[in-house]
Amino acid sequence: METVETLDFDEKPKKSKKRLKKWIRVLLKIFFILIVLIIVGIIALSYLFGAVQTKSEVLEFTIEEGQTVYQVGNKLKEEGIIRSNFAYKVYVKLNNINSYKAGVYKLDKSYPLNDIVSLLTGDYYKEDGVLITFKEGRNIRQIASEIADNTNVSEGEFLSLLEDDSYIDELINKYWFLTDDIKNDDIYYPLEGYLFPETYNFNKNVTAKEIIETMLDQEDQVLSKYKSKIDSSSYSVHEIVTLASLVEQEGIYEDDRKMIAGVFYNRLNAGMSLGSDVTTYYAFKVDLGERDLTSSEINTYNPYNTRGPQMNGKLPVGPISNFSENSLDAVLSPTDSDYYYFVADKSGKTHFTRTYEEHQELINALKEAGNWIEW
Predict the structure, then answer these.
(1) Cα–Cα nearest to 163, from 134, 200, 192
(2) DSSP code of 60?
(3) pLDDT tens, 258-279?
(4) Of 21, 77, 81, 152, which has fewest CB within 10 angstroms of its CB?
(5) Global pTM value
(6) Domains of the chain by range and CATH?
(7) Distance of CA 188 to the CA centre of its chain
């Protein structure tokens, strides 16, 4: 009789268990690989969706009529405003962004992709964003008021931060153009003249420090373009900034500003006082247009008041406003002349004369013609 071999019953579960363990190991490996890929993908997308840099740098970005969202994406990448055109395409597709309105936008390289797109669609300002334009010639008090009107930072909070000596020291160490000159006890506000006037995009919950350093970053960009001229000047950067702040308030037109800067240099070189009304207004914290100056104010010594005594051949102790690039350029590239006096008429046009007698005759003529400015 033929013998038939049979598999021992106890061996079957052993092999099944081995196969099960093998598949579990395979599945665990696959699961682990998927987790790693997901984590790597999240990290990669976070990077691609993030800001191109941490330092604020505001650029003008133009969208032409008829440009598609993908053409805009190509341009954003070319101008270094976003990290990845691919990430941009994914984002606009997922969020159903189909078009933008043509125009010129202020975009900050320190903003992530979602904020950049939100700015272009206008949604940014419907939520927590705020656009603030600081006009040229405004002083710190006016800037603080503008900030309080548009953010959760109060005037008092903003101004008190400027009295924090340790914070001012931090800024001096961070920015090449800030020097110990701004710590002079006679200076009202250490950062006067150094907060560049521009249109900025902020979150409504922005902090005072974030605002200050964003404006200082923009000042850095502007001053750095003129650094070689500043370094070769016989005046310090603080003195140049101070002069630019005066020119900003004394003249409206570009050619006039270059002439005004030249007149200031002529008077300084001759040991004369600058005789600038705008410094007297600032000295006594009276805003231009608020009222006329009194004779007492004009003739009282104050380290800002260049119409007062003891100011011959001297600049004010510090800037009196936050100036435009145009005024900075005027101070660094003034028009040479033999003029020592100037006065503006009601239209803002500045008239120049060589002597005090000519200056007085011009003032009388402007008054007779009804072209003399009175507040």
Answers:
(1) 192
(2) E
(3) 999 999 999 999 999 999 999 9
(4) 21
(5) 0.72
(6) 58-127 (3.30.1490.480), 134-197+208-225 (no CATH), 228-368 (no CATH)
(7) 21
